Amino acid sequence: xxxxxxxxxxxxxxxxxxxxxxxxxxxxxxxxxxxxxxxxxxxxxxxxxxxxxxxxxxxxxxxxxxxxxxxxxxxxxxxxxxxxxxxxxxxxxxxxxxxxxxxxxxxxxxxxxxxxxxxxxxxxxxxxxxxxxxxxxxxxxxxxxxxxxxxxxxxxxxxxxxxxxxxxxxxxxxxxxxxxxxxxxxx
Length: 187
Fold this sequence. Notes:
Layout: H1 11-21, E1 29-32, H2 44-53, E2 58-62, H3 73-76, E3 80-84, E4 96-100, H4 126-131, H5 140-153, H6 159-182
Parallel strand pairs: 1-2, 2-3
Antiparallel strand pairs: 3-4
């Protein structure tokens, strides 16, 4: 566990703290992309590049990032990335995803194995065979994810960049109201 100070003085503080805790015995790193209680956007690309170059696989918990941030998951360089669609994208609860870098897919197994575990289909990766249909799970949230992305992105001229800009503007306004009412210094 790495403690991140709040408020923070610079992104480099997070980088330095995380990397200073990664030693010879570090076998895995789990990073938040956006912290839940403070909404800090962590410099995951910088941290991930360094950790992965040291042979430390990184999983990024991007629960809050999809829809909030412009997201190019492959460019981050992590072994795995997971995110939610029910927050900023407004998909149903349970709409989420797990992305795995191609070289890391063979090592993944779903918690519930079902039809695809004993199946090999021509033209399909083993990764998709074992994850695509895990028995009695309701696929509705997952299947609605693309429609939610398209719907929210089409609501404003300018698409997702404008949605993100407006959301940020409203969050900053809300912060201003709270800090004013509570007599706290503006950040």
